Amino acid sequence: MAKYRVAWLPGDGVGPDVLAAARVVLDRIGLDAEYLPGDVGWEFWRREGDALPARTIELLGNTDCALFGAVTSKTKSAAEEELDPRLQGKGFSYRSPLVRVRQLLDLFVCLRPCKAFPGNPLNYRDDTDLVVFRENTEDLYAGIEFNGVPEEMKLLPGMDRVPPDAAISLKINTRGGSKRIARAAFEYARKHGRRRVTCVHKANVVRVSDGLFLDTVHQVAHEYPDIAFDNAAVDAMCMSMIRHPQNYDVIVAPNLYGDIVSDLATQLVGGLGFGCTGNIGKHYALFEPSHGSAPKYAGQNKANPIAAILAVRMMLEWLGETDKAARLEAAVADTIHEGQVRTHDMGGSATTQEMTQAIVARL
């Protein structure tokens, strides 16, 4: 019987292509695991009205972790136009399957390491090495939205200024949610010898919800006197990360700002072809490349597999297979540094398969 059970979720577009590359790497490195395929993504929404079918949720509950490829994301109206005509008008509502997984399984940490590998022609600076901790279940992604002002809200302070044709999305930061993402960031910093944690917010304007987040992170910081702490408004932070990315180490942020700054940080180290993400809870984790489904490249063997391979590295580390994780990162670093094989996004002509084989050869 295999040591690990891994939910295998290729998803849409280039998702199957990059997970195929991930499987080659996993087989070569010899992880003792069983890979269990699951249904997720756009085609299941179109045919069934559910991008995350109940059978897939059950699968997640019977595995140790998941590896995810990519998913197509569209607006609610665009999604409903492509729904199977037999299902239209029956109340199906499109929601991101990834957001649902994060909330269903309480994967409250979105961990995004952004490390520049020397030799990558897309690096902004070769010395960029930072990690973003994004709160993954609250904030504007909580999914509490409605059109118009409900009667029970009309007496709340300030609601008299809201016109009746308003669309309202609730931004929800809790003390408990803010505390646990802050503690995860500081614990990571201490464990990995990181020197500083920076809290990203907009508490100067969004005084209640962002104010709570900043105040809570500041309180947690007092528990870690060995780690420096500072904070920055999200707009100033984006500017500063471009000017001096080497000044940042560990960044902690609410859901929306974390989404923004993590993509910015990934661009500093080559773009989404190099970005990997861990969605991590107390007992389960889902790992994925950070890029989208890029449907126009599906099946063309063009996608950069490095993001998916680095997601495998994160999964190995989370499973406690630290030696295998270190070997894989070294193989990726050596391949990039040598510069003989470069995918299209790196200015070369190597295929997904060729880049994968170049990395495997160094294992």
Helix and strand layout, with pairings?
Blueprint: E1 4-11, H1 15-29, E2 33-37, H2 42-48, H3 54-61, E3 65-70, H4 76-82, H5 97-104, E4 109-115, E5 129-135, E6 145-147, E7 167-169, H6 175-191, E8 196-201, H7 209-221, E9 228-233, H8 234-243, E10 250-253, H9 255-268, E11 276-280, E12 285-289, H10 306-318, H11 322-338, H12 352-361
Helix pairs in contact: 1-10, 1-12, 6-7, 8-9, 10-11, 11-12
Descriptive terms for the model:
363 residues; alpha/beta; Isopropylmalate Dehydrogenase; Rossmann fold; 3 domains; ten-stranded mixed sheet; two-stranded antiparallel sheet
Question: Describe it for me?
Answer:
The protein is built from 12 helices and 12 strands. It is of the alpha/beta class and 363 residues long. It folds into 3 domains: 1-113 and 273-363, Isopropylmalate Dehydrogenase; 124-134 and 173-268, Rossmann fold (3-Layer(aba) Sandwich); 139-172, no CATH class. It is globular, with a radius of gyration of 21 Å. The mean pLDDT is 94.
**How many strand segments?**
12
**Molecular shape:** globular
What is the straight-line distance between the termini? 25 Å
Strand and helix order: EHEHHEHHEEEEHEHEHEHEEHHH
**Major β-sheet profile:** 10 strands, mixed
Name the CATH superfamily assignment of the largest domain.
Answer: Isopropylmalate Dehydrogenase
What strand line-up does the widest sheet have?
Answer: 2-1-3-12-11-4-5-10-8-9
* Residue share in helix: 25-40%
CATH topology of the largest domain: Isopropylmalate Dehydrogenase
Rg (CA only): 21 Å
- The count of helical stretches stands at 12
Overall pLDDT level: 94
Spans of at least 5 consecutive residues with low confidence:
none
Structural class: alpha/beta
As for the number of domains, it is 3
